[in-house]
Specification:
By secondary structure, this protein is of the alpha/beta class. It has helices at 71-89, 113-117, 140-144, 200-209, 240-256, 277-288, 361-378, 384-393, and strands spanning 4-11, 44-45, 52-61, 92-97, 103-107, 122-131, 165-170, 182-187, 225-230, 238-239, 262-266, 292-296, 316-321, 339-342, 346-350, 354-359, 396-397, 409-410. It has 2 domains: 4-15 and 132-410, 3-Layer(aba) Sandwich (Rossmann fold), CATH 3.40.50; 37-129, Alpha-Beta Plaits (2-Layer Sandwich). The strands form 4 sheets. It has a 7-stranded parallel beta sheet, with helices on both faces. Strands 2, 3, 4, 5, 6 and 10 form a 6-stranded mixed beta sheet that branches. Strands 1-16-15 form a 3-stranded mixed beta sheet. This is Peptidase inhibitor I9.
Length: 416
């Protein structure tokens, strides 16, 4: 007997509730103990009081200290330079980023910050910050975007999407869920397994690609390969440095397998308007490496231009609407939204080999990730820009929007 968990309308957006501010161009405001002399040093970006993880920082290296060459030699050089810096300043490295970003995260005593900022190899430093998670039937969202009339005809009990892999950067996935084709997982939270103890990542994964097998629910791209990238803990909390490590891992996977089409879903982001340079740069570099990113716009009912990573222009940023095609009151809006997708009362897979009904732009983004996977299964050589342009061109103008400069386009999967 499969049990269903109805969690109702939760403004889910596993929203890395990152209350970051002052993370744009370096100014006196938002920097640590800045003197006139120090303004020539590498900038340091800070978190608001109470949100920083004490003593933890992300350090980004300058490009000119690394060799020009293939990605593996560059990554090796990053590891070498990071190790040298750690040895010089007696630091304990947590993550080394060699693919989407060039740098590392570490615990750094306050009395060593100034020395690091004067190191000519360092481009900038950012305080690490806390992140938090909020909170077979044919789901209405799958029907609304016509995934049920796509090439795989989601919901007819047969067929699956092959030749594409979707990375779920989230709380993990229930690795043995019978309705999900999970092909692997990696953990950046220290738990040692990518298995989901929260539920959010499993729900997102089901929207993308729950199997079309007559049980539970069905996803937009039924049976597509799913890979769990666990960056948030089972309590729904984590750090920016973990998320960047996840993006870096996905980028490495693409560089190692350039012929395999890849999509990444990020149903996370800042709950209050904030931008985070390291994460944004990592996502942009990952897209440039060939990974398509679908990113939730956020659940604050605010302009998405002020939110990381939702404001990354190269990504596909997704707002939410309900069963009546009305733009969700909680969804972030604005000119940076590329598409909208169903995001209210969405039924999908959940931990405990069950299903659950959740709401949020967290649920909207995977409808787009699944649609991108459908398109790539038929157009495997398409670039992220080409995928984004095609999905926008094929979008349907049926969303009733009352926000300024916000698209009324819904993602549409029926053509693929």
């Amino acid at each position: 007997m499969k049990r269903a968990v109805n969690l109702g309308l939760i403004l889910l957006f596993v929203a890395l509730n990152i209350f970051f501010w002052g993370c744009g161009q370096p100014t006196d405001q938002g920097q640590i103990n800045l003197t006139q002399q120090e303004k020539v040093l590498a900038p340091i970006y800070t978190a608001p009081e109470g949100e920083a993880i004490p003593g933890k920082y992300i350090v980004v290296l300058k490009d000119n200290v690394l060799p020009k060459g293939d990605f593996k030699s560059v990554a090796q050089a990053v590891a070498k330079v990071a190790g040298e810096i750690a040895k010089t300043y007696s630091l304990h490295l947590e993550h080394v980023y060699g693919f989407a970003l060039k740098g590392f995260s570490a615990e750094i005593p306050q009395d060593k910050i100034l020395a690091l900022r004067s190191d000519p190899r360092i481009a900038y430093i950012e305080e690490d910050a806390k992140v938090y998670a909020f909170a077979q039937t044919l789901p209405w969202g799958i029907d609304r975007i016509d995934a049920d009339i796509s090439s795989t005809k989601a919901g007819d009990g047969t067929g699956s999407v092959t030749g594409v892999r979707v990375y779920i950067i989230d709380t993990g996935i229930q690795l043995n869920h019978p309705d999900l084709n999970v092909v692997g997982g990696v953990d950046f939270t220290g738990k040692g397994t990518a298995d989901d103890g929260n539920g959010h990542g499993t729900h997102v994964a089901g929207i993308v690609g729950a199997r079309d097998n007559g049980d539970y629910v069905v996803g937009v791209a039924p049976g597509v390969e799913l890979f769990a990238v666990k960056v948030l803990g089972d309590d729904g909390s984590g750090s920016f440095s973990n998320v960047i490590a996840g993006v870096d891992f996905v980028t490495q996977q693409k560089l190692n397998n350039p012929s395999l089409p890849m999509v990444a879903n990020m149903s996370l982001g800042a709950r209050t308007g904030s931008k985070y340079n390291s994460l944004d740069n990592a996502v942009v570099n990952s897209i440039n490496a060939g990974v398509v990113y679908a990113i939730a716009a956020g659940n604050d009912g605010a302009d998405a231009k002020n939110y990381s990573p939702a404001h990354v222009k190269e990504a596909i940023t997704v707002g939410a609407y309900d069963e009546n095609n009305t733009f969700a009151y909680f969804s972030n809006w604005g000119s940076l939204l590329d598409l909208n997708a169903p995001g209210v009362r969405i039924l999908s897979t959940y931990i405990g080999s069950s299903t659950a009904t959740l709401s949020g732009t967290s649920m909207a983004a995977p409808h787009v990730a699944g649609t991108a996977a459908l398109y790539l299964s038929r157009n495997p050589s398409a670039t992220p820009q080409q995928v984004r342009d095609r999905l926008v061109a094929d979008g349907k103008a049926w969303v009733k929007v009352n926000k300024p400069k916000t698209t009324n386009l819904s993602v549409y999967a029926g053509n693929y």
